């Protein structure tokens, strides 16, 4: 399982970074989204992987997953959406004002 | 606790707001308000002042950030009382004076608002008990002085002067902060009382010298000491009331105030004497010399101020208790005569239209009363007997003689002191003679006359004080001087007598010499002027400053050129490379030893997980490979998001899975909307080597990330999770630990996060304002968009589902504290449900039914969350403490409710607000311009054109 997560994060990061380095806004937004998935998973994984033990207190249970990274990641996901939305709107504005969707405003 | 102290300091800040507001109501209101506020602060000072007179030191303290030693603390002893009286007293006179000084076109509200801000900052500075707090107020005085100096912002010399003053005093302020932090480290406390009591350990510490140097840098820049003195003459571009206030009595005295404040803790060492005294001496002589050659009245006064500040610094540098007493006395005297002189200069400027002494002459004929006042004040500045300036200057001469007798090498001290005294007499003479005598004026822009009655009142009051103190020092300034000097020394006062006549002493001889010498220098001023212009006059510190500044800016621009290429791709590549380098450097030891894998046993993967991960990899790689076909890439991307949500399900994170799932939906809708306005294809632009290079870099980042994850996941770790798990139910009243962390334990973080979201929403709202985008009329293949009514089944079901979806959201919100759910998720569910209406029914149908103006929700939500947090203060608990309890409701049953739920409701509202603001506003962009009826006709036309086009 650990290997799977490591590979998944590696792949998400690679794909995200590659798209981030493109010259047009839309692929950059896609790349940013992929990279956010990777980063969220990364943060989440810092609490180690636990299967079938959510952090919901039950009297009969002793083992729980680490709730702290989860709380961090939960807000990170929502803020990630806010950031994506901002970048998207920025891209639209740039296209409207500059007439191009190149990241540097070039034609 | 003496709560009138913080009240006194905060009153001017409130006054600033009031003055700014009342300035919009009528021209003179803000003057009245400011005068009232200054008077009220003075009234608040009365009670504490009486207690200080009884020998008490008043303290008021409140904890603020105790972890870093930052507490809110105010202190009133003799020294701070003296300064508070000067700040408020002279401040009151300046308020009155400025009301008549400012011209009709000058905005009064802004002036008085700045003046009040400065007054508050200065009061805070002199009454601070905590050193860090003192540094904060210190910086505030720099900033407010910048605002005041640049008040006439249409004048370039005002802007430049203000910038120079800010650059120099601001840089000094930074050094001071460093010095105060070191001082606090040495003592182990940032409380002034502790610092003053720890003099011996401070001087013995190895950190003493760096701390002293940094603090002195702050002092010297603020009090315009050589070689930082040159900002003060350029700050004369300020309106004259500002100069009378800041550049005579208050701000420039902040530096010497600090010398006095820390005198017991830092003085009496060789380093102190050998740094402070020479700097003071150099400033004294240089200032007095330069003042004579300034043709501008205010320029003369500025250099004279520099010189007098040098005198005070030199006295503190000499370091004996008697010298410190003389320094404090001179602070008081200088404030009175210099403020009145600045005001007189302002009156002359105001009535004669110029401040240039080469054009002014013979004003005695036109304004004899002002002339008389100016004459008395100038005589005090020159040190003429029976005026206050004479007394403290005598004390100063006496100290220099004393030093000369004590050490052989100091024989120069009385010589220089007398020389500076002589120059002071000469420039004071010039101030009077050049302006008021010497024949009738010929080149004045207007015919001068006496100013209005009330403009002279502040000058009169100050001049009367000068005379009264000069004749009866013991009865006037005496008690305050004893108090202030006692507080400066923090010990018994030395024997000294405040009287006009001390018999025939060397000091008296020096005074006489200075007076005669001054007259002599003034008599030969014309050849001296020529000599000066050919020698020292050529040297301009401002030119040096500007050269230095432009060199610094040039360096920054050069660095910027090197580092900041105008290409996002290149900059990103550099950042990513740096990130890889940092991680690889950290991982290097374990990579070298082959110990990347840790000892932790692995969790065996199951077939479903492997299959899911394969899907994820295919989705991610597919997004990249197909990224030029944007629609397809978006579909691939959504697969990845869904798999990530599944991963959260598998790995015991139901809350994350729910969040990810709902965010995924709104994200995809958002990207679809964006794509509507953007090109549908990405042109192939990068060359193959460029793509290979990017792929290599991306691969390197991915590999290091994967290696890091692997290394972490195979190692055991210490977590603070146990505490949260143990305290979630008893402390937070909820069994869903993730939610309890979000709304209770780390509620403050969450509050910050929804604030960030709100800020993003505001930014997006503004970016969308006035945005005009040409939506394509047809898709990539040239087929026009369908304007068909929205699918009946989807529309019907969406309407039916809305209440149900909202119910689900309420359910998720309510259970969030105990089971997976909560404000974030519920908010997203509401948003998805509402967006669904827009998608299924169209904007025209939905907008009248569900208000499109949902952005107030963001503010309401933020307020609700904050108010919930503040509510706990009412019960004497820390911010955001949650209360919870069991409730029994008929029909529904037992309920566990916590106030955190209200907080969560605020979170929900913010999330709903931001999501809808973005999606609906974006969706409306097009519809606003093209109502459907017209749009449909347009589609018909487009179709017809296509058919015709197809025929060709």
Descriptive keywords:
heterodimer; A: mainly alpha; 0% strand; B: mainly alpha; two-stranded antiparallel sheet; 4 strands; elongated
Offer a concise description of the structure.
The complex is a heterodimer of chains A (107) and B (952). Chain A has 107 residues and is mainly α.
Give structural notes.
Chain A: The chain crosses the membrane at residues 6-21, 28-51, 71-92. Chain A: InterPro entries: CPA3_antiporter_subunitC, NUOK/Mnh_C1-like. Chain A: Belongs to the CPA3 antiporters (TC 2.A.63) subunit C family. Chain A: Keywords: Cell membrane, Membrane, Transmembrane, Transmembrane helix. The complex is a heterodimer of chains A (107) and B (952). With 107 residues, chain A is mainly α. Chain A has one domain. Chain A has three helices and no strands. Chain A has helices at residues 2-20, 25-45, 67-98. Chain B is mainly α and 952 residues long. Chains A and B meet through helix 1, helix 2 and helix 3 of A and helix 25, helix 26, helix 27, helix 28 and helix 29 of B.
Q: Order of helices and strands of chain A, N to C?
A: HHH
Q: How large, in whole angstroms, is the Cα Rg of chain A?
A: 18 Å
Average of per-residue pLDDT values of chain B: 87
Percent helix range of chain A: 55-70%
| Secondary structure tally, helices of chain B | 38
- Principal-axis shape of chain A: elongated
Q: Beta-strand level of the residues of chain A, as a percent range?
A: under 5%
Q: Mean of residue pLDDT of chain A?
A: 90
Radius of gyration of chain B: 37 Å
Are there runs of chain B of 5+ residues with pLDDT below 50, and where?
Answer: 928-936
Quantity of strands of chain B, as a count: 4
Q: Give the CA-based shape of chain B.
A: elongated
Structure annotation, total helices of chain A: 3
Biggest sheet details of chain B: 2 strands, antiparallel
- Quaternary arrangement of the chains shown? heterodimer
Domains of chain A, number: 1
Instruction: Please state the structural category of chain A.
Output: mainly alpha
> Strand order across the biggest sheet of chain B?
1-2
Summing up helix and strand content along with how strands pair, one would put the structural category of chain B as mainly alpha
């Amino acid at each position: 399982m650990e290997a799977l997560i490591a590979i998944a994060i590696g792949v998400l990061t690679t794909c995200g970074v590659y798209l981030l380095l493109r010259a047009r806004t839309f692929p950059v937004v896609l790349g940013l989204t992929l990279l956010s998935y990777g980063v969220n998973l990364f943060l989440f994984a810092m609490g180690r992987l636990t299967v079938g033990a959510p952090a919901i207190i039950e009297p009969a249970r002793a083992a729980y997953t680490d709730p702290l990274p989860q709380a961090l990641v939960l807000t990170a996901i929502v803020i990630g959406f806010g950031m994506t939305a901002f970048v998207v709107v920025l891209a639209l504005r740039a296209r409207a004002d500059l007439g191009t969707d190149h990241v540097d405003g070039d034609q | 606790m003496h709560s009138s102290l913080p009240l006194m300091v905060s009153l001017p800040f409130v006054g600033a707001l009031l003055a700014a507001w009342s300035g919009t109501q009528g021209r003179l209101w803000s003057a009245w308000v400011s005068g009232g506020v200054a008077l009220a602060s003075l009234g608040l000072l009365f009670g504490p002042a009486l207690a200080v007179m009884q020998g008490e030191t008043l303290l008021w303290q409140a904890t603020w950030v105790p972890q870093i030693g930052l507490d809110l603390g105010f202190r009133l002893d003799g020294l701070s009382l003296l300064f508070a009286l000067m700040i408020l007293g002279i401040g009151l006179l300046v308020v009155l004076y400025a009301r008549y000084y400012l011209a009709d076109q000058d905005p009064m509200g802004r002036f008085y608002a700045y003046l009040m801000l400065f007054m508050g900052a200065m009061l805070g500075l002199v009454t601070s008990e905590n050193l860090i707090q003192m540094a904060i107020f210190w910086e505030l005085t720099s900033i407010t002085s910048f605002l005041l100096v640049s008040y006439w912002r249409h004048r370039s010399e005002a802007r430049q002067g203000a910038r120079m003053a800010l650059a120099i005093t601001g840089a000094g302020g930074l050094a001071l902060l460093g010095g105060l932090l070191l001082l606090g480290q040495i003592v182990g406390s940032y409380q002034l009382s502790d610092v003053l009591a720890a003099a011996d350990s401070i001087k013995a510490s190895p950190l003493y010298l760096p701390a002293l140097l940094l603090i002195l840098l702050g002092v010297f820049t603020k009090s315009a000491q050589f070689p930082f003195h040159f900002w003060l003459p350029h700050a004369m571009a300020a309106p004259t009331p500002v100069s009378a206030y800041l550049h005579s009595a208050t701000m420039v005295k902040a530096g010497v105030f600090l010398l006095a404040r820390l005198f017991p803790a830092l003085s009496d060492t060789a380093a102190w004497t050998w740094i402070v005294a020479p700097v003071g001496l150099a400033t004294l002589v240089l200032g007095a010399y330069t003042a004579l050659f300034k043709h501008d009245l205010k320029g003369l006064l500025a250099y004279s101020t520099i010189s007098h500040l040098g005198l005070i610094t030199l006295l503190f540098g000499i370091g004996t208790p008697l010298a410190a007493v003389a320094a404090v006395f001179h602070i008081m005297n200088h404030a009175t005569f210099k403020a009145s002189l600045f005001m007189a200069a302002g009156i002359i400027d105001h009535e004669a239209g110029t401040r240039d002494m080469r054009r002014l002459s013979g004003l005695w004929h036109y304004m004899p009363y002002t002339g008389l006042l100016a004459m008395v004040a100038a005589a005090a500045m020159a040190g003429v007997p029976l005026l206050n300036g004479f007394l403290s200057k005598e004390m100063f001469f006496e100290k220099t003689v004393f030093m000369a007798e004590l050490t052989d090498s100091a024989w120069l001290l009385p010589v220089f002191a007398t020389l500076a005294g002589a120059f002071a007499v000469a420039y004071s003479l010039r101030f009077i003679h050049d302006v008021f005598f010497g024949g009738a004026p010929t080149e004045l822009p207007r015919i001068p006359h006496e100013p209005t009655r009330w403009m002279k009142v502040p000058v009169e009051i100050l001049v009367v004080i000068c005379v009264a103190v000069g004749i009866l020092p013991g009865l006037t300034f005496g008690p305050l001087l004893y108090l202030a000097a006692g507080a400066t020394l923090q010990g018994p006062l030395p024997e000294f007598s405040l009287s006009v006549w001390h018999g025939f002493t060397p000091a008296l001889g020096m005074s006489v010499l200075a007076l005669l010498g001054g007259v002599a220098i003034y008599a030969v001023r014309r050849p001296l002027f020529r000599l000066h212009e050919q020698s020292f006059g050529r040297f301009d510190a401002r030119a040096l400053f500007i050269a230095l500044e432009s060199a610094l800016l040039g360096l920054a621009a050069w660095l910027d050129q090197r580092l900041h290429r105008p290409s996002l791709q290149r900059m990103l590549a550099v950042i990513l490379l740096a990130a890889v380098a940092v991680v690889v450097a950290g991982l290097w030891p374990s990579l070298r030893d082959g110990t990347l894998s840790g000892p932790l046993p692995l969790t065996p993967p199951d077939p479903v997980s492997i299959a899911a991960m394969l899907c994820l990899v295919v989705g991610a790689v597919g997004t990249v490979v197909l990224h030029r076909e944007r629609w397809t890439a978006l579909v691939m991307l959504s697969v990845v998001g869904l798999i990530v949500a599944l991963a959260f399900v598998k790995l015991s994170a139901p809350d994350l899975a729910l969040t990810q799932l709902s965010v995924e939906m709104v994200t995809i809708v958002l990207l679809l909307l964006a794509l509507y306005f953007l090109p549908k294809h990405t042109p192939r632009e990068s060359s193959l080597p460029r793509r290979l290079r990017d792929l290599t870099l991306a691969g390197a980042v991915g590999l290091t990330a994967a290696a890091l994850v692997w290394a972490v996941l195979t190692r055991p770790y210490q977590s603070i999770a146990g505490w949260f798990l143990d305290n979630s139910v008893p402390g937070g009243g909820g069994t869903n630990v993730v939610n309890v962390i979000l709304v209770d334990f780390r509620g403050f973080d969450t509050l910050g996060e929804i604030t960030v979201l709100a800020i993003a929403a505001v930014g997006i709202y503004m970016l969308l304002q006035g945005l005009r985008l040409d939506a394509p009329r047809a898709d990539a293949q040239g087929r026009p968009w369908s304007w068909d009514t929205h699918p009946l089944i989807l529309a019907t079901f969406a309407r039916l589902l809305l209440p149900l979806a909202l119910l689900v959201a309420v359910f998720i919100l309510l259970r969030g504290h105990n089971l997976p759910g909560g404000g974030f998720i519920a908010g997203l569910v509401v948003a998805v449900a509402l967006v669904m209406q827009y998608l299924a029914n169209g904007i025209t149908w939905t907008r009248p039914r569900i208000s499109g103006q949902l952005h107030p929700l963001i503010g309401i939500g933020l307020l609700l969350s904050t108010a919930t947090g503040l509510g706990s203060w009412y019960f004497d608990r820390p911010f955001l403490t949650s209360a919870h309890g069991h409730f029994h409701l008929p029909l529904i049953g037992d309920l566990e409710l916590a106030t955190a739920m209200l907080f969560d409701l605020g979170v929900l509202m913010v999330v709903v607000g931001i999501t809808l603001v973005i999606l609906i506003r974006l969706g409306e962009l097009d519809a606003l311009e093209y109502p459907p009826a017209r749009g449909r006709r347009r589609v018909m036309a487009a179709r017809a054109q296509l058919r015709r086009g197809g025929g060709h």
